[in-house]
Amino acid sequence: MNAPAPHRPLRRLTALLAVAGALSACLPAGAAPAPGAVSTEAGQLSIRHEKYTLPNGFEVILVEDHRLPLVAFNLWVHAGPRNEAKGQTGFAHLFEHLMFAGSRHVPRGKFDQYVDAAGGTDSNGSTNFDRTNYFFTLPSNQLELGLWLKSDMLGWMIDEVDSVALANQQDVVRNERRQSFENRPYGIVEEAMYQALYPEGHPYRAAVIGSHADIQSIKLEDVKAFARTYYRPNNATLVLAGDFDPKQAKALVQKYFGSLKPGPKVPAVHVAMPEITKERRLVVTDRIELSRLNLAWHTPPMFAKGDAELDIAANVLGGGKASRLYGLLVRDKQLAQSVQVAQESMSLSSLFDIEIVARPGASLDEIEALVDAEIRKLATTPPTEAEMAQARATIETHLLQRGEKVTSLADTVNHYNQMAGDPGFAGQDLARYRSTTPAAVSATVAQWLQKEHRVVVQAKPGEQVLPPEVPTPPMPEKAAAGERESLNALEAWRNKPPAAGKAKPLTLPAAQSFTLPNGLTVIHSRKAGLPLVSASLVVRAGQAVNPADKPGLAGFTAGMLPEGTKTRSAQQIAEAVAALGATLTSQAGPEEARIDFSGLKASAREGLGLLADLVLNPAFADPEIARQKAQRLAALAQAREQAPLLANAVGNRVTYGEGHPLAENALGTEASIKAVDAAALRGFWQARYRPESSALVVAGDLTEAELRSLVEPLFGGWKGAGEAPAARPLPPAKPIAARTVVVDKPGAPQTALAVVAPGPLAATPDAAAIKVMNAALGGLFTSRINNQLREVKGYTYGIYSGYTMGRERGQFGIRGSVRTDVTGAALVDMWKEIEGMRAKPMDAAELNRVRNAQLLSLPGLFDTNFAVVAGYAGNWSSGLPLSTITELPKKYGAVTSATALKAAQQYLDPAQLIVVAVGDKGKVLPQLEAIGRKAEVRDTEGRPAQP
Description:
Elements lengths: L9 H4 L24 E2 L6 E2 L2 E4 L5 E6 L5 E8 L13 H8 L11 H8 L3 E7 L4 E8 L3 H14 L6 H20 L4 H11 L14 H6 L2 H11 L5 E7 L3 H12 L22 E7 L5 E8 L7 H12 L5 H9 L3 E9 L5 E9 L5 H17 L4 H18 L3 H15 L5 H10 L2 H11 L5 E8 L50 E4 L5 E6 L5 E8 L13 H8 L9 H11 L2 E6 L4 E8 L3 H13 L5 H20 L1 H14 L13 H6 L2 H11 L5 E7 L3 H12 L24 E5 L5 E9 L8 H13 L4 H9 L3 E10 L4 E10 L3 H17 L4 H12 L2 H4 L3 H13 L10 H6 L3 H11 L6 E6 L1 H10 L4 E4 L9
Parallel strand pairs: 4-8, 9-13, 15-19, 20-24, 20-25
Antiparallel strand pairs: 1-2, 3-4, 5-7, 5-8, 6-7, 10-12, 10-13, 11-12, 14-15, 16-18, 16-19, 17-18, 21-23, 21-24, 22-23
Helix pairs in contact: 2-5, 3-28, 4-9, 10-13, 10-16, 11-12, 12-16, 13-18, 17-23, 19-24, 25-28, 25-32, 26-27
């Protein structure tokens, strides 16, 4: 990937989830077609598209959608690990990285800069076992620029790949592997599961990312051979989705892709589904706090008979809080911290995976026996009609929500094109779920989920056993002569990037507000199109107002809200949400608590009714409190497993200082969690959950009149209990002197860094200049810090900076993980970039690029209901006026080099920065001493470690 994305477990990397759904009673019959490409007319989901093929075999799919002035460019190369040669695990993924390293007409490092300068969003790449994709979204006036970039990636990347570029990306990918596997809980466990499932030589056996040995052994000639075979127009498909004129798009596609030479016919892949005839069991030890159980079976390939039935079975068994295994293991027996069940659909064969993280002290054998009993029950007794309806509703809503963003819409169409052979397969896909029956689900479970055909993996705390370390060779100083070659003829006209078309007015979703008589603020942003609605109830009840002796109480209170009301049990709430195919979550942040709902417009009344019930009538029942205590204590343990989370937590303690409400872990401490009772929870709720200190933010296909008719009956009777507590301003941060703190994680292959300091508040008039300055420093993939540490040095998979600006608190931070042996060198480079940012103004080119990256990307940052809700909810929580969002273009446009430099000099003080490094102290401390940093060692709570 060209930029880090939130980590997904290995099983999520194996396939972009088979987007599937069934639009039935949840979509209103006779609904009007959506104004974009996605239609729900008469309750049927369809995606309007046009597919054609150029003479060179290049497939093009046009999805015209004029909801926003955006175009998504989604290029799929039909090659993944299924196409790798023996001993080349991780090759397809490494090739994904190389695609961003420069091409004949786009010099190295310029690709992402062009995307930034044009206001691009969602720019990245990803690899699963079956394909590799490359995507970004640009303003619609940059259609030609996007095609110029994509065509050069596909046709002329190989011209610029040499030994220097290869070595750099090998370093980057190996850092990604360290971050995602060796230094992430259960990473090596998932890899071991795949190796137990698949025999030697099977293309799915290894992790998508490959092994260190194979990644490092890849030669330049291997890269060229792979490009000659697979990276040709006859093995790729481009989806354009968004606001364009089809006639113009076709002409430009021909211009940019028509001259690419086709390659040889791609070798067919014929691999039989592996057969397991006797249960395989293994135990893997890892640096983890909580044990975990995985049960995995080979199952039918994507879209084959049985695939849809197993999707539904996965939902019934472990698809959420209403599922059987969650109810049994998490809620009733309290043996599990989490439950995940999925039918991981792939082209050669699929996997059915049950994953249970155990509570401390729970027996994996006992959990396994209970899971086996539930599987036997499902295999002999069909699921209920209610369970079938819940599964269908969940799947269908997920698919419809993928149509909100043109980015995910384009990827969905490309997915159907490759995996089903038809970009318009949505209708047939939906039919699979409509046509299946409870009996068919039961029979499919009985056929495929048999004990003798599975792999069982128990992950237990212990020593992490890794293969011998593969050395990282020195980076070549320069490429050798004759390393480059061309697949396509040079075309001089491509040297100059195309000019942008006429830009459409930059407008952002506006919002209106009204206030109920009880003081509740209602903020509404209408977003017509798809029949979807998102809402968030925001309450000034975050960590900042925790009682001094009860850290974590705000989060505990918010977490209890979905666990029962006066009229509904936790199970009934979960079942009601599942029946709507919706999501309903609650959490507390530093300054606010939020309850979020997203679902179909048809479920808005019921969804908002549930939200109102949760906030107005919480039960705080003792059995649920006891269960939540165990859940939160286990979550504390899990947080210690993850070095980045640990670095952040310790960073907060040293930034805010002892005694500050935001210095403590948001979960609280073991003592504070154990001390919570119903009286404490109810007292906090009565004092803080009040209509006059809350806002309900709603976005979607609702008029103001429709929203009022829903909100007034549900929330109009909400009254705060007793007198509102006196305002208690958040105390200012009390940072200790700038210093370096090390938290020991013996044997860690990476050091997780959090370089932190107090920062400005949201109301600062310099906010826009600060954000533009930070974009150049470390906020963008193309930023100075990330470019130096990743692209130049190969120290990291990615490292980024940012300002968190709230109503009463602010923080600056630089966060990321670096290879252990370069911890000191990475900090030296980081400080050079910080000092450089403060020393002189940006030149015009850099300013225009990073300012445009903030300014022109704005429409793409507010392209879903949930994004609009999150924006206005955060705006209200920070105490900013409603117009702040719609005024962003003007404020970003006014930033100059001088104001950005002033922001750096005022809000980026190296003397205030505190370095928190979570890693192997035996290896890290000598490096810090060598660069003149005296470090202190602290424990996982952020307190001085005992000698």
